[in-house]
Amino acid sequence: MSILKFLGFEQIFKNALTGLMMGGGKGGCDFDPKGKSDNEIRKFCYAFMLELSRHIGDNTDVPAGDIGTGGREIGYMFGAYKKYRNEFAGILTGKGGSWGGSFIRPEATGYGLVYYVTEMLKDLDNTDWQGKRVLLSGSGNVAQYAALKIIELGGLVISLSDSTGSLIATDDKGFTTEDIETIAQIKLERKSIKEFKTGGRFDYHEGKRPWTLVSKADIALPSATQNEVSGEEAEALIKAGVRYVAEGSNMGSTQEAIDVFEASRKSITSLDKTEGICFYAPGKAANCGGVAVSGLEMAQNSQRLTWSSEEVDAKLKDIMVTCYKTCWETGKEYAEGGAIPSLVAGANIAGFIKVANAMRDQGEWW
User: Fold this and answer.
1) Of 121, 130, 222, 236, which has the fewest CB atoms closer than 10 Å, so is most exposed?
2) Final residue of a domain: which of 286, 311, 334?
3) Nearest 10 degrees: Cα torsion 96, 100, 102, 103
4) Residues ≥6 apart with Cβ < 8 Å to 351
5) Is 74 inside any structural domain?
6) 77-122 residue pLDDT tens
7) Model-level pTM?
């Protein structure tokens, strides 16, 4: 319940930052899919939707996948809803492309994370991804697609991880597109990344996260789960030269880690300083691309349209650029004494103000 509560709370303000007309919330179940067959998972999804279908609708609540819920589970639940309600409606996002889904939805969170950091790189240091050494945690959808986009833009992905441990590149090549595709297949088979044949190009570190395993990096993207960066690990990242941290996971950094990142930012009054400074972007802003494309999928369903992948990708980029600018400008407005704006404060304040103003305008809060 604690995970659902913090995710629901974050989702409200994350959705506000997308600029789309969406509220927020979370729900879930205590069914563990590990070790279950496809048929056992299908039976559970049908049983779960028997009750859930009473509470959702295309104009009520539109769930999307999250932890443990991918395209397979969305498909089973959508089929169950259609059977129980005898209607075809856009009541879930992340659907298959041939039955109401949107292009770019599987890639959206990872791509959006990269687009957000692209704006940070350009705005704060007038640079890009070329040659940047990037630490990524996780090896699921978010990490996979973020890695592929980073490679496309010229960055070097030097780590991936899962709950069993981390893979760290030992050469200057990092992960290739083929490596990512192989790891994606391993995860699809619900296996650990330690099954990946390293070919001597990677070291596997059992039970460890990647943050303390390298001596030099430029960017860190926590993309696995909540509280995956501690205060000590944040200090290790800054010591390794990491200048940008952006969360692909929800609340990926502990409060102690955030305090370390923010303290480094507060120590400067000019962007000209390059050493020992780390700019931190919270998940509610940096990873809002996934829910943004869920909103775009809802719009397509409402209009009975399918936009091309190029159209959806362009809309996603616009949303992430606008989100960054909103966080920066709001952070600047509330910065004290000419300090460099905080993207954390900007995201928190901008999201809250939008929600609070809407509640007040609608007479819900006096």
Assistant:
1) 130
2) 286
3) 60
4) 12, 13, 14, 16, 17, 284
5) yes
6) 999 999 999 999 999 999 999 999 999 999 999 999 999 999 999 9
7) 0.94
Q: Which of 244, 246, 17, 18 is nearest to 128 (CA)?
A: 244
Q: Are residues 82 and 121 in the same domain?
A: no
Nearest CA among 36, 108, 20, 18 for reference residue 72 = 36
Q: List strands edge to edge, sheet with 156-162.
A: 202-206, 165-169, 156-162, 133-136, 219-221, 244-246, 279-281
Q: Find residue 229's DSSP bridge partners.
A: 253
Specify whether the CB–CB gap between 320 and 296 falls below 8 A: no
Q: What is the CATH number of the domain that holds 54?
A: 3.40.50.10860
Please name the amino acid found at residue 45.
Answer: C
- 3-class DSSP string for 305-318: CCCCHHHHHHHHHH
Over the stretch 286-306, which tens digit does the pLDDT of each residue have? 999 999 999 999 999 999 999
What is d(CA 327, CA 342) in angstroms, rounded to the nearest whole number? 8
In a domain, 127, yes or no: yes
- Give the residue numbers marked as catalytic: 26
Query: In this structure, are residues 307 and 102 in contact, taking their beta carbons and an 8 Å threshold?
Result: yes
| Sole residue written with tokens 């009975």 | 304
Q: Does residue 136 sit in the same domain as residue 189?
A: yes
